[in-house]
């Protein structure tokens, strides 16, 4: 599966949960520092960065322009607009184009896969926070599991995920992926 398709599926999973958040913005998530609103704001922040970085900007070029509360009075509409803009940029980019990330230059396909992983894992976080269905897109899970196995060491080195949590030997692909990202399925 191509990186843009993984991203599209993961973004759709996250977006479906955002549409269930009304009245639950202050619910605690598995991310100790974020409630539902802060978690959605985090993804809107990423979606604002996506067109910029895919367009050739550097981290320094973007600076702090997307810091703070991006959700405003209508978080769902804000999310929908940011998600659509990011998806358009994702679908238009050459997957081999260089993207300037905080830890070095990488092909766009790598950046898109990272974004997809963040969307998919946080879709589970939202579902868990709100007591909703936690099942994620199985094809996106499989693609991200294959990618993240050899990639997780880098994520730990740059301190963007916590330690892997233990799961049973016969755990599902989804549970194994979540555990790699430090979640307790």
From TrEMBL:
One of its GO terms (molecular function) is metal ion binding. Residues 9-127 form the Mycothiol-dependent maleylpyruvate isomerase metal-binding domain. It comes from the Bacteria. NCBIfam families: maleylpyruvate isomerase family mycothiol-dependent enzyme (TIGR03083), TIGR03086 family metal-binding protein (TIGR03086). This is TIGR03086 family protein. The lineage of its organism: Bacteria, Bacillati, Actinomycetota, Actinomycetes, Pseudonocardiales.
